[in-house]
Amino acid sequence: MEQKNVSLWSATAPSPLFESLRSGTHVDVAIIGGGITGLTAAVLLKERGKRVAVIEKERIGSGESGNTTAHLTEAIDARYSTIARTFSKEAARLAADASRSSINQIESFVQRLNINCRFKRLPGYLYTEKRSDIAKLKKEAQAATEAGLAVKFIEEIPLPFATRGGVRFESQAQFHPREYLVALAKRIPGDGSFIFENTHVTSIKEGEPCEVESQKGPLTADFVFEATNIPIAGFISLNLKDAAYRSYALGYRVEGEHPEGMFWDTEDPYHYTRWQETDQGTFLIVGGADHKVGKEEDTEGCFERLGEYATEKFGSHPLRYRWSGQIIEPVDGLPYIGGSGKMFASTGYAGQGMTFGTVGAMIVADLITRRTNPWADLFNANRLHARGALKDFIKENVDFPKAIIADRVLSRDVKSKETLDVSRGEGKIIAVDGKKMACYRDDSGRLHAISPVCTHMKCDVHWNGAERTWDCPCHGSRFKTDGAVINGPAKQPLEKFEVIDVDPTLREPSSS
Q1: Torsion over CA of 340, 72, 486 and 383, rounded to 10 degrees?
Q2: CA-to-CA distance for 411 and 408, rounded, in angstroms?
Q3: Which of 69, 457, 72 has the alpha carbon at shortest distance from 290?
Q4: Which of 342, 106, 376, 358 shows the shortest CA–CA distance to 233?
Q5: CB of 438 closer than 8 Å to CB of 294
Q6: b/e string for 215-250 if b means 16 or more Cβ within 10 A?
Q7: How far is CA 7 from CA 61, 101, 283, 358, in A?
Q8: How many whole angstroms separate alpha carbon 196 and alpha carbon 359?
Q9: Is the distance from CB of 196 to CB of 205 less than 8 angstroms?
Q10: Could you give the CA distance from residue 134 to residue 458 in angstroms, rounded to a whole number?
Q11: Tens of pLDDT along 415-426?
Q12: Residue 336: in which H helix or E strand, if any?
């Protein structure tokens, strides 16, 4: 039987249903996106007397905050040694302080609002199985210590397989993200504040007031905060300074004792592991197999390779859930948070979406309410590249011109539909009467045809078999099989085409 992609979080915590947008609503702050960034900002702002509206295109916590592995850690992806070198030692100290403060903010909400989300303090470990990486980890331990964190290099890592040691980060944390987000969401509606679900924002116009257009109608606000994975309006330069990656996760039902902590190795792409208690029991979560969006043909193989790793390292356990998420990598290693005038954005969390998402909410809430924030300048969305980041900027953006050339000039082995069948559950770029189409045949046999040209920057999308989505390799936009937008920066769906199915054996069965 085919394994469906469902995250552990969505399967073990129900979410209340909120209404769609009420046309003509005006609020102080419109927040686009109902993940950890948007909901945290909404609670902070409402507690400061602001009327807010959280606008989510699907359901609260259904986006990337629902596809996380929910590590709450000060151990940033870019490494403190790198931040100290490319920015400064003071920047590393500020990044550490922001990460620590975000975990403290989550813990404060949990305690003050009496949120039952299984929040737990525990150590985190950055470890290696390679002797050649030991010196790098000792250097990272030193840099993190200088940044003000409670860390140390240790020889033994509490895992059921041999390692070469690593860096232990004290007092990190984990939680059930959906239980946490649902509790925050319940505190927002009322007193002039709203949550609007199933409302896809199509455009934002800055002004007095700002105008937010959606498929459900307009809304106006004094300020707009784009708390989305990638901004959908304005902030055009961030599309060039961010790169979108897919990351995969598996959830195994386990019994008995397990290591106490969260773990990341030094492989590329790296593996990350932790355990989580739920109403359904305890689960081992193993993540990894990252790749740039649209650049991996065998996405099903990513789950398979991750499963082989999990079995090798932790033994055989029943696989209950599998899912994948979108990670936005900033070119210089730190998120882009802030804005100017009336519009704000927060993006580029790399592998720390829960912690940096909370940081983004805290910074923007301070900017909107004109409070001084100690980290705002460091994470400024309009900042220039850090030293040494130009090389990464060029590397991450070379895919765009290459893809345009390949899509428009070079052959991509596109065959005519009359000679290339599309099987059930499969998607292919094929030609129909000389015109390229992205064709998908559903499990009933019906053929769906849409334009393969991404509505963002006109690259061709690629088929993602594991997720049954069309993914753009240029800037990470993703679309459903009917062309609807899943991930930005694209705002408009792919164009639908009507085609005559030439293979009667694969047509949708007649209802008569």
Answers
A1: 30
A2: 8
A3: 69
A4: 342
A5: no
A6: ebeebbbbbbbbbbbbbbbbbeebbebbbbbbbbbb
A7: 11, 27, 12, 21
A8: 23
A9: no
A10: 45
A11: 444 445 788 888
A12: strand 336-340
Assess contact for 131 and 269: CB atoms under 8 A: no
Could you tell me if 427 and 481 are in contact, meaning their C-beta atoms sit under 8 angstroms apart? yes
pLDDT tens-digit readout, 106-155? 999 999 999 999 999 999 999 999 999 999 999 999 999 999 999 999 99
How confident is the model at residue 394, as a pLDDT?
47
Q: What beta strand segments (E) does 130-184 contain?
A: 151-154, 166-174
Tokens in use for 348? 């580029």
User: Minimal CA–CA distance to 212: which of 39, 36, 54, 401?
Assistant: 54
pLDDT tier at 404 (50, 70, 90 boundaries)?
Answer: very low
The mean pLDDT value of the chain amounts to: 89
Residue type, 10: S
**Rounded to 5°, angle at Cα 89 from 84 and 95:** 80
Q: What is the pLDDT of residues 288-334, one digit of tens each?
A: 999 999 888 888 999 999 999 999 999 999 999 999 999 999 999 99
- For 138, other C-beta atoms within 10 Å of its C-beta total 14
Q: Where are the domains of the chain?
A: 426-506
Q: Are 311 and 178 in contact (CB under 8 A)?
A: no
Pairing state between β 52-55 and 25-32: parallel
Say if residues 124 and 71 touch (Cβ distance below 8 Å).
yes
What integer pLDDT is reported at residue 419 of this predicted model?
42
Q: Which two tokens stand for residue 352?
A: 């720390």
Per the CATH hierarchy, to which homologous superfamily does domain 426-506 belong? Rieske [2Fe-2S] iron-sulphur domain (2.102.10.10)
- Residue 83 has a pLDDT of 96
Cα separation, 51 vs 53, in Å, equals 7
At 464, list the tokens.
């993602």
Long-range contacts of 200-209 (CB under 8 A, 24+ apart): 200/57, 200/485, 201/32, 201/55, 201/57, 201/232, 201/491, 202/491, 202/492, 203/233, 203/491, 204/32, 204/232, 204/233, 204/234, 204/343, 205/233, 206/234, 206/341, 206/342, 206/343, 207/342, 208/342, 209/26
What is the pLDDT, as a whole number, of residue 197? 97
Task: Measure the CA–CA gap between 134 and 132, rounded to whole angstroms.
Answer: 6
3-state class (DSSP) for residue 106? helix
pTM of the full structure: 0.87
Nearest in space to 472 (alpha carbons), one of 499, 497, 492:
492
Task: Please give the Cα distance from 469 to 450 (Å, whole number).
Answer: 12
